[in-house]
Amino acid sequence: MQTTGTTEDRAPLTRRELVVLAHLSDDVTLDDVARELFVSRNTVKTQVRSVYRKLGISTRAEAVVHARRLGLREDG
Length: 76
Prior knowledge:
By secondary structure, the protein is mainly alpha-helical. It contains four helices and no strands.
């Protein structure tokens, strides 16, 4: 997937997708995120795929960078 596009021409992230994005980091599993959010792993997996598609990214590292840019994460 291409990572250089802007999100302006894509659907905006939902509130829940923003929450999931904020919980992603290199050292957590989807199971960890699911437990934290009180949902199933499959729900998180679906939301992560949607976030990736909407942001035009394909890796967790890219997702973490986007989360920082959006002010959802302050670490690293």
